[in-house]
Design the sequence.
């Protein structure tokens, strides 16, 4: 059988109150807690999804780790690859040439990052093959001077597969007439769409040997891209390789080259958690108001319970249960609605965009053009725990006041 404190606390919560204003504030408190919890879960899920999607798209083009030469070139990259391959956490490697270039099509000119690669090796470290919009990565063949562009870059130049485009290298050629730029005509053999405007509008892929000829690098490359078994261990692997490699190399990993993106998302996530927790705190203050008025309304009942032998701590428990139940119901409603909304937010945003007739996430402003979401049950547990804790703390002062009610004073005018 339940203790009398719990039974009376549950009865006070269920009972039809004479003061309907108290009931209204109770419902408002539940709704406020539910709204705050729901908003927290949705926002944190979107932050998690954004961070995960951003990382996946960046690393789909970049790599877990890059090793470049001290002077910007690697002459014996094959020997370096053999050294790196001995590390147990290395899963793939690919050489690359990286430089700037100017693409010219008629009167249209666009700057781009030009990357020379080996198609058969690139699949080991990047995901271009999964994001090809037209053509295939294997269409890049040595000596044929084919080029693959980001879909937005190709559209900006008005290019279609099979069209010719001139690529101007920044390094010039000294002639009797002066310094002339090096120009080579390439054929568009494909386009890719990573879903990230930075790459879709500014990256061009060519065969490694064609890039070496254009930039006059001989058999050298800019560096070696490395894929690891666990990308989160990249900083530790980098330090281990730095100690074991013999030669003048510069090593960097994805946490160094894109640290600002992920730090910004993490800081924003923490700040949004703090700001939205204030919604739950405001609802918790409503619980204080509800219980203070409930204590005033139930002073006669409290006095009778005290005369029947109820202890002050027992009176405290009664009203703590009443307030905590408001918090529990509000938190459960917020968790359920928040998880449901977070799971379906990717479907709801396009519906809202169609209804409003506007693009809420334009690709040229945001790094990704859609709203991803990933529910982290650790975050859900944290949000629920914080909401319940605030609701519990809100019950302490009114319950303490109820425990201090003197039976004689309360019954004097009854």
Sequence:
């Amino acid at each position: 059988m339940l203790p009398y404190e719990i039974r009376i606390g549950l009865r006070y919560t269920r009972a039809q109150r004479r003061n309907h204003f108290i009931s209204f504030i109770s419902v408002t408190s539940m709704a406020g807690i539910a709204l705050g919890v729901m908003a927290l879960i949705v926002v944190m899920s979107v932050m998690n999804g954004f961070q995960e999607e951003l990382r996946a798209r960046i690393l789909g083009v970049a790599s877990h780790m890059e090793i470049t030469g001290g002077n910007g070139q690697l002459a014996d990259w094959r020997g370096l690859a053999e050294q790196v391959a001995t590390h147990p956490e290395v899963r793939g490697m690919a050489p690359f040439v990286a430089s700037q270039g100017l693409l010219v099509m008629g009167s249209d000119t666009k700057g781009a990052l030009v990357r020379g690669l080996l198609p058969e090796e690139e699949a080991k470290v990047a995901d271009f093959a999964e994001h090809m919009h037209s053509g295939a990565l294997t269409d890049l063949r040595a000596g044929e001077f084919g080029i693959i562009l980001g879909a937005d870059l190709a559209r900006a130049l008005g290019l279609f597969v099979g069209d010719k485009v001139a690529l101007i290298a920044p390094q010039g050629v000294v002639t009797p007439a002066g310094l002339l730029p090096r120009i080579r005509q390439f054929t568009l053999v494909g386009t890719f769409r990573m879903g990230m405007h930075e790459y879709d509008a500014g990256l061009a892929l060519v065969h490694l040997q064609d890039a070496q000829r254009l930039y006059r690098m001989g058999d050298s490359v800019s560096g070696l891209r490395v894929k690891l078994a666990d990308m989160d261990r990249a900083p530790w692997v980098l330090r281990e390789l730095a100690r074991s490699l013999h030669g003048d190399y510069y090593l960097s990993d994805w946490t160094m080259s894109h640290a600002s993106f992920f730090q910004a998302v993490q800081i924003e996530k923490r700040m949004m958690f703090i700001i939205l927790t204030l919604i739950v705190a405001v609802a918790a203050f409503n619980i204080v108001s509800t219980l203070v008025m409930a204590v005033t309304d139930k002073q006669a009942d409290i006095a009778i319970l005290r005369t029947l032998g109820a202890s002050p701590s027992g009176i405290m428990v009664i009203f703590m249960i009443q307030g905590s139940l408001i918090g529990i119901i509000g938190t459960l409603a917020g968790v359920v609605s928040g998880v449901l909304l977070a799971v379906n937010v990717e479907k709801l945003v396009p519906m809202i965009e169609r209804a409003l007739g506007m693009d809420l996430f334009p690709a040229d402003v945001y790094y990704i053009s859609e709203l991803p979401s990933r529910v982290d049950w650790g975050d859900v547990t944290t949000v629920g725990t914080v909401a319940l804790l605030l609701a519990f703390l809100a019950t302490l002062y009114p319950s303490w006041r109820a425990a201090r009610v003197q039976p004689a004073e309360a019954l004097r005018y009854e």
Summary: Residues 64-257 form one domain. The two ends are 32 Å apart (CA to CA). The chain has two domains: 4-57+261-411, 64-257. The longest strand covers residues 90-105.
